[in-house]
């Protein structure tokens, strides 16, 4: 038995695959193996895999007969893994030279079911890749935890290491708890990592950046089709089902972390709904996605009904319409108004920190930068009710007087 199996799902990554394999093969660690699962690529990925397999004894390649997706590829790798511990590496990413050694030593020394570590971005800026740390100051995690106790600490610190490639697992723990990736969805790590954390009797964290995540235009995270909304919905249903079965076992702090996680996933699901409209109106998407959109669109119509016909017509004639709020509510309002032919000049926020640069093609600005337009703009407050009075007073003090509180939540 090998100490570690590194599983690499492969699909149409000929541009990055050599870098990935070279980084794994150059590890300063012995007694590990590499399992690559080729998922019916249409480029030269398979050719590259066979070339590498021919020249190394620690690498095995398995091939799917049809394209089955990332989850299925990881499951195939796990099925054939001989290692005592399991690591996953996406085929467009890179491992630090001592990653396998460090991860193995930490999980083995602590006799843990799962160990978490950190990563570094390698961002594509159009001409080159820029290495960038994700975070400078991490929380302190001493000793070992019950997985259900570590999870809420991660959530509270905004440091939840959801990606499966930021973890190393004890294989027996995965098999004994029937922990396999949910096939047929994207964002599968949102569910898998939750299930791992809830099952782990012993979990540890160490703050070393062992993994290098390459972010480029073809990354799966850039997908904005109906699969996102459907996948978020499935993940939510699976987690809620688990909570129903285990509610009596959970402590107050565990529940608090899980509820916060569910709230975040729900918001992500709502945002993802916005991107399936074009597919839906073109007759694309499956029946599940169409059903989800119809239900969601009814909710948007309910929000829109809070504007009278005369207000809708007024907004169409306005010189400038500014939507205040870039969260879930603001995103839905932008989408709702644009569907009704209302041109949005800008989206305003108190601060750009932790906010997107644009929503549905409309740029986001700090409200101070829009003060020049206070005399000829109408501002729609797309914020939760508890913030409405504070923001309305701030806008009026800045000279904005045409203000509509569109949403109460």
Q: CATH superfamily assignment of the largest domain?
A: Spore Coat Polysaccharide Biosynthesis Protein SpsA, Chain A
Major β-sheet profile: 9 strands, mixed
**Known CATH architecture of the largest domain:** Alpha-Beta Complex
Q: Looking at CATH, which topology of the largest domain would you report?
A: Spore Coat Polysaccharide Biosynthesis Protein SpsA, Chain A
Beta-sheet strand percentage?
Answer: 15-25%
Average pLDDT reading: 87
Number of strands: 15
Overall radius of gyration = 24 Å
Give the class-level CATH name of the largest domain.
Alpha Beta
Secondary-structure element sequence? Answer: EHEHEHEEHEEHEHHEHHHHHEHEEEEHE
CA-CA gap between termini: 56 Å
Q: Please, how many domains?
A: 3
Secondary structural class? alpha/beta
- List low-pLDDT spans: none
Number of helices: 14
In which range does the helix fraction lie? 40-55%
> Any idea what the shape is?
elongated
Structural account:
It contains 14 helices and 15 strands. With 409 residues, the protein is an alpha/beta fold. The chain has 3 domains: 4-221, Spore Coat Polysaccharide Biosynthesis Protein SpsA, Chain A; 223-304, no CATH class; 306-404, Rossmann fold. The strands form 2 sheets. Strands 1, 2, 3, 4, 5, 6, 7, 8 and 9 form a 9-stranded mixed β-sheet that branches. A hairpin with a 2-residue loop joins strand 12 (358-359) and strand 13 (362-366). The chain is elongated, with a radius of gyration of 24 Å.
